[in-house]
Amino acid sequence: MTATETLTLPGAPRVQAGADAPGHGEGGPASKRVIVGYGFWIFLLSDIIMFSAFFAAHAVLQNATDGGPSGGDLFNSRNVAIETACLLFSSFTCGLSAVGAGARRMIWTQAALFVTGLLGLAFLLLEAHEFTTMIAAGAGPRRSAFLSSFFALVGCHGAHVTIGLLWLGTMMAQLVIKGFRADIERRLLCFNLFWHMLDIVWVAIFTLVYLVGGAR
Amino acid sequence: MFGKLTINAIPWDQPIPLIAGAVVGLTLLAVFIWVVIKGHLPYLWREWITSVDHKRIGVMYVLLGLVMLLRGFIDAVMMRSQQALAYRAPGYLPPHHYDQIFSAHGTIMIFFAAMPIMIGLMNFAVPLQLGVRDVAFPTLNSTSFWLTATGALLVNISLVVGEFAQTGWLPYPPLSELPYSPGVGVDYYLWALLISGAGTLMTGINFVTTILKMRAPGMRYMRMSMFCWTALASNLLIVAAFPILTATLIMLVLDRYLGFHFFGNEGGGNMALFINLIWAWGHPEVYILVLPAFGIFSEVISTFSGKPLFGYRSMVIATLGICLISFIVWLHHFFTMGAGSDVNAVFGIATSVIGLVTGVKIFNWLFTMYGGRIRFKTPMLWSLGFLVTFVIGGMTGMLLAVPPADFELHNSLFLVAHFHNVIISGVVFAGFAGVVYWFPKAFGFRLHEGWGKAVFWCTLVGFYVTFFPLYVAGLLGMTRRLQHYDVAEWRPWVLAAAVGVVISGVGMLCQIVQLVVSIRDRVALRDETGDPWDGRSLEWATASPPPAFNFAFLPDVKGEEPYWAMKQRAIETQHLAAAGEYQAITMPKNSATGFMTAFFATVTGFGLTWHIWWMVGAGLVLAYAGFVWFAWRDEDEYAIPASEVQRIDGERRRAREEWLARNANVSEAA
Questions:
Q1: Where do the domains of chain B lie?
Q2: With an 8 Å Cβ cutoff, is A31 touching chain B?
Q3: If you placed Cys at B607, which of A40, B68, B615, B646 could pair as Cys (CB 3.0 to 4.6 Å)?
Q4: Within an 8 Å CB–CB cutoff, is residue B220 touching chain A?
Q5: What is the three-class DSSP state of A69?
Q6: Which residues does B339 contact at the CB level (< 8 Å), separation at least 6?
Q7: Structural domain of A10
Q8: Is A21's Cβ below 8 Å from some Cβ in B?
Q9: What is the chain B residue with the closest CA to A55?
Q10: Number of residue pairs across A and B with CB atoms under 8 Å?
Q11: Are A161 and A174 in the same domain?
C-alpha cells in the first residue's frame, strides 16, 4: 500500500505507480480499448446465457417427439460436418483479419474479412437448406416440441450469424472509407470476439444437438 | 394493410379506459403545446432527449418511474375498490377489464416503476460516487433509457388500442397461449418486455463495466461506497438473469406467432418449463430491485447517523452472497407444482439461508445507528420505516419458505400481502428515500421537509392499513385476483384494505404537493455548498447540481469514505486542498441515437403486436439505417476549455470557502 501512495496535492493528476494498471483500482479509469473490449465480453457472456436457456429448453424437450421423427431420423451428418468446417475455418480467417489490422494491411484485412463473410454465408445457406428439407419432409417446428426447441436453438444461432454478416459488411465499408482509426479498430476487436463466440456456441450445438441428439 | 388492427380495437363501449386515455392524451397534448409555445422544445431536445449525461438520464429514469408508479397506483385503487364493492355483487369492473388491470398493475409496477426508479438512482449516483465523469458507454445508456420508455409506452397504448394481457404479470401457459388468449394483450406484454428488457440488459452491461473498469485513482474495491457495491451486484444479476427472460419470452412468441410447441398442450409442450425458466429470471429480479435499495438505505443510515457504515466488509460479503444465492431459490415460487418433497426441502432451506444473509444487513444498519447522533430527516424516516416493515415482511417470507405452509398459503392474499410488504418497504421506500436524498444534488435545492414527512407518514400508515388486513384475509382462505366473492368473513378485511388505499392516496397527493411547494420555495431551500446532508461519499464533493464533467480533477482516493476525510482535513486546516492546474476536459457528445432507436422500436413493437408486417419491416430497416448513421460519425467527443472548467470549479470552491469561514465563526462564537 505504501508503495502506491504517492504524495501529490489532492485533486492534482496522480503519478501512476507502475504495477497498477488503470481500471484496477489505483490507476484511475481504464483505457477506452479495455473498456470497450471488457464491456463487449460482458455482453457476450449475457448472450451465452441466453443460448443456455435455449439449450436447457432443448434438453427438457428432446424426447418430446410426439410420435414424430427424432434426431436420429433427421440429421444429415455430412451436411452438419460441412457447416462446422465452414464456421470453424471462418473463425480462422477472422483471426487473420485481426492480424492484418494489427499490421495495418488494408488489403489483407479486407480479404480475410471477405473470406470470413463468404464462409459465414455458406454456413447459412447450408443451414437454410437443412431447415427447408426438414420442413418439406413434414418435420418443421410445428411437428413436435422437440423440433420446436431444435429450430429455436439452431435458428437463434443462425440469426446471430446473419446479424454478424450484416455487421461485417457494414464494417468492411467503414474500414475502406475511414481507415484504421482507433474506434474502427475497437469495433474490429468486438467483431472478432463476437465471431469466435458464435463458434463456441456452435461447437456446443454440434456436440449436444447433432452428435448426442443424432444418436437418439 | 393494418393487420389485426381495426377501428373496433378501441374499446368504445368501455368508458373507463376511454376517459382515462382521453385525459392522459389531452394532458400530454397540453404539455406539448405549452412546451412548443414557450419555445422550450430546442432546450428539451438538446439538454434532455439527446443528452448522454448520466445525471440527466438518471433524472429521466426516475421521472418515468414516478409517473408509472402513479399509473400502477391508479390500477391498485381500482382493484381495491372493485373488491370492496364486489361482495355478492358484480362490482363496476367486468372480469375482462379487471383481469387486465391486475396484469397491468404488476407489469407496470415491476418493470416500469420500480426498475426505472432504481436504475435511475444508480445512473445518477454511481459515477459520482466512483469519482468519474460518466458511465462506460454514455450513448448506450441513453438508448437503454429510451428503450425502457418504449416498453412503458406500448403498455400504455394498450389501454386504448386493443387490450392488455389478462394473464397476470407473468404470462403462465397454457393460458397465455394463442387458443386461450387469442387477443393482442399478451402480444403487447411480450413486445413491451422484450424491448425494455433489451434496454435493461444494456444497462447491466454498462454498469458492470463502469464499476469494474472506471473508478477514480485509488478507488479500490474495498473503498467503494455501499451503494456502488449493491449496484454492482444488481447489475451482475441483470447480466446473468435478463437473457433468460428474453429467451423465455422469445419461446412464447414463437409459440404464439409461428405455432411452435414449447409450452402448449399439444405436440409434447411443457408448461413447467416456462414456469421454471421465468422464475430463474424472476427470483434474481427481486434482488435486482432490492439490492440497490439496500445500498440506498446504507448510505442514508450512515449519513444521518453521522457514522461510517457498521460492518462494511460483512455488508459487502452479504451483498455478494445474496447475489449468488438468489439464483438457487427460484423454485419456492411454485412449491405446489409437485417437484417432490426432497426438491422442495432444498429450495426451502436455500430460501431460509438468503433470509439469514439479509438479517446480517439488518443488524449492520442497527449497529450503524447505535451510538450515532441521528438526524430524523425524511430519508432517515424512510429508512427507519423500512427497517421495521421489512423485518415483518421477511418473517412472513420465512413462513412461506416452509413448503408445507406454502401449500396452504400459495396464491392466497397472504402471499400478496407478503410480497407487497417486502417490495413496498424495500424498494418503494428506498426509491423515495433516494429521491429525497439525492434531489438537492440533482437540482441544487432540497425538497420541502414538512411535506416530505407528511408523505412518509401517509404512505407508511396507508401501507399497514392496506396490507395487514390482506394477511388476515389470506389466512381466512381468500385467494388472489378475485373479481368478486361471496364469503362474509373476508368482507371486513377487504373494506379495511380499501381504507388503507385511500390513506396511501393522500400520501401520493402529498408527494405532488411536496414537489410543487419545493419548486416554489426553491430559493429558500437552496443547497449552497453541494453537501446539504453532511455526506460522506464523493457525490457530495462536487457542486449541486454537478457540472457536466462532475469533477474538475478526478478525486484522489486514500481510504473508505473519501469525501468525509477530505472534509475533515479542510475543517482542520481551514483550507480547501489547493487546486491543481486546470485542463480541458473531453466529454461525449449528445446523440439522438437512443431516441431514434426507441422510436423505431416502438413502431416495430406496435407492428408486431398487430401483425402489421410492412410496419415491422420499415421499423427494422430504419433502425439499421440509424445504427449505421450513428456508427459513421467522425466526432463523438467535445472539449470543455480549461478556462471554463476553472470558472465552474472556482464557483464551487468559493461556496465551500465561505462555508468554512462561516463555520469557523460559529465555533469561535461558541
A1: 40-591+636-669
A2: no
A3: B615
A4: yes
A5: coil
A6: B331
A7: 1-30
A8: no
A9: B247
A10: 166
A11: yes
| CATH pick for B40-591+636-669 out of 3.40.50.150, 3.40.1790.10, 3.40.50.300, 1.20.210.10 | 1.20.210.10
Name every residue whose Cβ is closer than 8 Å to that of residue B251 and which is 6 or more positions away in sequence.
A54, A57, A152, B260, B262, B263, B274, B277
CATH number of the domain bearing residue A138: 1.20.120.80
Task: Verify whether residue B593 is a known catalytic residue.
Answer: no
In this predicted model, what pLDDT tens digit does every residue of B83-128 receive, in sequence order? 999 999 999 999 999 999 999 999 999 999 999 999 999 999 999 9
Tell me how far apart the alpha carbons of residues A72 and A212 are, in angstroms, rounded to a whole number.
Answer: 9
Query: Are both A24 and A113 inside the same structural domain?
Result: no
- Say yes or no: A45 and A98 in one domain: yes
Number of domains present in the structure of chain A = 2
Query: Are residues A105 and A1 both part of a single domain?
Result: no
Q: CA–CA separation, B61 vs B139, rounded Å?
A: 15
**Cis peptide upstream of residue B174 (ω within 30 degrees of 0):** yes
What pLDDT score does B13 carry?
Answer: 82
> If contacts are CB pairs under 8 Å, which of residues 308-347 in chain B contact chain A?
none
Q: What is the distance between the alpha carbons of residues B470 and B194, in angstroms, rounded to a whole number? A: 33
Assembly ipTM: 0.94
Bridge partner residues of B620 (DSSP): none
Q: What is the pLDDT of residue A5?
A: 37
Residues of B in contact with A61 (CB under 8 A): 262, 268-270, 273
CA–CA dist B627, B74 (Å, integer): 38
- Cα atoms in the 13 Å half-sphere on the side-chain side of B155: 32
Shortest distance between the Cα of B188 and any Cα of chain A, in A, equals 22
Q: Do the Cβ atoms of A50 and B247 come within 8 Å?
A: yes
Sequence length of chain B is 670
CB contact under 8 A, A49 and B636: no
Contact between residue B277 and residue B247 where contact means Cβ atoms under 8 Å apart:
yes
Candidate list B81, B246, B276, B314, residue with the active-site label: B314
Indicate which of B211, B262, B581 best probes the interface with A, i.e. most A CBs within 10 Å of its own CB.
Answer: B262
| Close Cβ partners of B342 (under 8 Å, ≥ 6 residues apart) | none
Q: Is B235 a catalytic residue?
A: no
Long-range Cβ contacts of B179-182 (<8 Å, 24+ apart): B179/B264
Chain A (47-86) residues lying within 8 Å, Cβ to Cβ, of chain B: 47, 49-51, 53-54, 56-57, 60-61, 64-66
Cut 0.90: pTM above it: yes
Is the per-residue pLDDT at B615 higher than 90?
Answer: yes
Whether residue A102 is found in the same domain as residue A133: yes
Q: Does B221 touch chain A (CB under 8 A)?
A: yes
The pLDDT-based confidence of B76 (bands split at 50, 70, 90) is very high
Q: Out of B53, B97, B107, B134, which one is annotated catalytic? A: B134
Rounded Cα–Cα distance for residues B616 and B526 (Å): 49
Q: Given the C-alpha cell 429450495, which residue does it identify?
A: B347
Residue written as grid cell 465499408: A173
Residue whose C-alpha cell is 492480424: A99
Query: Same domain, yes or no, for A12 and A45?
Result: no
The Cα–Cα gap between A75 and A85 comes to 16
Report how far residue B598's alpha carbon sits from residue B312's, in angstroms, rounded to the nearest whole number.
40
Q: If DSSP codes are grouped into helix, strand and coil, which group holds residue B4?
A: coil
Same structural domain for residues A55 and A71? yes
Same domain, A7 and A107: no
Confidence of residue A4 (pLDDT cuts 50, 70, 90): very low
Catalytic residue among B210, B225, B537, B590, which? B210
